[in-house]
Amino acid sequence: MVQKYQSPVRVYKHPFELIMAAYERRFPTCPLIPMFVDSDTVNEFRSEDGAIHVIERRCKLDIDAPRLLKKKNSLNSRERTLHIEAHNETFSSRVVIREHCCYSVHPENEDWTCFEQSASLDIKSFFGFESTVEKIAMKQYTSNIKKGKEIIEYYLRQLEEEGITFVPRWTPPAVAPSSETSSSCKKQAAALALAVPDPALREGLGSEPLSNPGGAPEPAVGTPDDKLDADYIKRYLGDLTPLQESCLIRLRQWLQETHKGKIPKDEHILRFLRARDFNIDKARETMCQSLTWRKQHQVDYILDTWNPPQVLQDYYAGGWHHHDKDGRPLYVLRLGQMDTKGLVRALGEEALLRYVLSINEEGLRRCEENTKVFGRPISSWTCLVDLEGLNMRHLWRPGVKALLRIIEVVEANYPETLGRLLILRAPRVFPVLWTLVSPFIDDNTRRKFLIYAGNDYQGPGGLLDYIDREIIPDFLSGECMCEVPEGGLVPKSLYRTAEELENEDLKLWTETIYQSASVFKGAPHEILIQIVDASSVITWDFDVCKGDIVFNIYHSKRSPQPPKKDSLGAHSITSPGGNNVQLIDRVWQLGRDYSMVESPLICKEGESVQGSHVTRWPGFYILQWKFHSMPACAATSLPRVDDVLASLQVSSHKCKVMYYTEVIGSEDFRCGLPSHSWATTGPTGGSMTSLESSHSGFSQLSAATTSSSQSHSSSMISRWRFC
User: Fold this and answer.
1) Which of 111, 270, 522, 670 makes a 20 to 30 Å CA pair with 73?
2) 422 bridge partner residues
3) pLDDT, tens digit, 9 for 90 and up, residues 593-644
4) What is d(CA 202, CA 209) in angstroms, rounded to the nearest whole number?
5) Where are the alpha helices (DSSP H) in 51-178?
């Protein structure tokens, strides 16, 4: 499915020729578009009369993909139109981006200019998540192109400041050029030269707005009060220009005069300035917000007053490990071995956030120590993330939401503290996680990411370029014993109920989105989902807390009657362990009144099941959790030992599930996975099994993506068992 964008007509109350002069100033680079690195002219054509000017440029973008964009500008000065066509060259076999823009004269006022823009994005192959990625990418794209009006207006103001408020229209040359015509052409050329001056001549004039895009006046440089000791700068702050030094002093003085409380050190003030390109107003705003946040949450005292829970100490697979070649403290995170869902369910989001804050505070402390040890300023740390073992379980929706909130808090309050992020052994599922998370990461931070798939980190340009051989961790085939916990699955016995988390004032995602239900023998629990648009996607995530159940999905063209406790048909029961609702009337017949749309799935006690179903028809879908009766042994009348043990465990004929469901529109999600993709671990827990090694095989996703386009109904089910 192709994502399309069509902008409303935008009107500039300026003549077409002046808009063209402003537009040309965007090339070869534009400081207001940081990702626009450079552009080269590939081909150029100009008609003899100068009315038609066609130019093709290859633009280089500093983003993950696509990196090269080809633009074709066709200017018709006679008709006063500019048509812009763009498409990507990099990764064109996987991603197709097309854009068309048009500048033209307003039909009712020839001194005004209209602008129209349309774009399409088609991700041909992305492991079955094409529609999801398309929507995220288009959302990012539309947020970026909306800046186009601001950019044109910026250059219009720049022209106005230079006294250029008029650019003459194109006029056809006479058959026999006279001296007057020649003079007119020279005047027009001179006007255009003023409107689009040589970049080399404007280098000094244009450098100031780049460092201060907000337009605020820069501080005067050179007064005695705007000087710091040269040795102090070299020892603790690093290289600073006179302008940057003055910005630091001004912001520090402002904080001393207005802020009541602890004043950050110069190194931390400098981080906020660097994160905002030394724009004092923006840095001051974000720093004030951060100082207020630190005071409210007592972050300054977190290392002295807060002890991480034992669950974090045992199962959070991260810790500090020596330093890199630049002297930065090195933090190692074995994300692929960490049970993020288990940690959230056992601790809550707030405890995880607090732990991450303590890690950042410890990082600041270690930077200060390393600055003293190495005798040079060290203001950031390096993070090494090992993704071996990363699988679909890590894409658990509440866990991803918790991760996004942590990223948001860290980005706002610890800017420019990450010097480098080394991501190792990235599996095939990583692009999905990266697509979900990367839009929330600052552009400057993303440039510090280095990603290695498989064993690429062992080759040239790999880990040895950044970390000394003698401190490479043993689990990466190094020689140094790493004391970082190995993680593993959090036992479900450590999970806490929503009530327990609420009593401790923790904002657990499952407190609001998860529901509990009891399943009895002869009384399944059922929920109703109404689907209006075919090809919508029903997603679910549930834990079998007690007993064994059978999970079914049914479809009906008519809605079941609302549940009533005393009715002979549908009824509901409320128990301390959760609700129990039956929707399928006892007089309904399977195949006549409703139909089964998925094969029954038997789920054992302790399993966590996540999956989705692409609906084929509109109507009413019923998700059912049913008590699973142990089948009798066919070979003998004597019961098996496993059957006896199971019957003792569920002697009350009652099961319990915790579940969450959500419906996603067909335009937001495309499920291209095998019908049953699952993986389990043994009853003793152990390490998590990647979907790459599951029965269906994650390597089949590419083939499944093709087959999904030919089928209206498909599902994805992932199962995990742990104790």
Assistant:
1) 111
2) 384, 450
3) 999 999 999 988 767 787 888 898 999 999 999 998 765 444 444 444 444 4
4) 12
5) 130-145, 148-161
Distances in whole angstroms, Cα of residue 330 to Cα of each of 24, 204, 327, 378, 472: 46, 40, 9, 12, 11
Q: Could you give the 3-state DSSP secondary structure of residue 578?
A: strand
- The SS3 assignment for 85 reads strand
Backbone phi and psi for residue 261, each to the nearest 5 degrees, phi listed first: 140, -165
Beta-ladder partners of 332: 319, 384
Please give the distance of CA 344 from its chain centroid, rounded to a whole number: 19
Look up residue 485 and give its two tokens: 């916990």
Quick check: 372 and 365 in contact, CB under 8 A? no
Q: Name the nearest CA neighbour of 72 among 62, 87, 50.
A: 87
The answer to whether the beta carbons of residues 714 and 673 sit under 8 Å apart is: yes
Q: Which two tokens stand for residue 560?
A: 């079941």
Q: Rounded to the nearest 5 degrees, what angle is found at the Cα of 416, between the Cα atoms of 411 and 422? A: 90
Tell how many helices (H) and how many strands (E) occur in the chain.
20, 25
Tokens matching residue 339: 């049970």
Residue 121, strand partner residues: 3, 97
DSSP string for 374-411: HTS----EEEEEE-TT--GGGG-HHHHHHHHHHHHHHH
Q: How far apart are CA 545 and CA 139, in angstroms?
A: 39
Half-sphere exposure of 509 (CA within 13 A, CB side): 21
List the strands of the sheet with 449-453, edge to edge.
318-323, 329-333, 381-386, 418-426, 449-453
In 10 A of CB 705, how many CB atoms? 20
- Please tell me what DSSP assigns to residue 633: P
Is-above-0.70 flag for pTM?
Answer: no
Q: Indicate the residue type of 605.
A: E
- What span, in angstroms and rounded, lies between the C-alpha atoms of 70 and 163? 33
pLDDT > 70: percent of the chain: 69
Strands (E), 106-245: 113-123
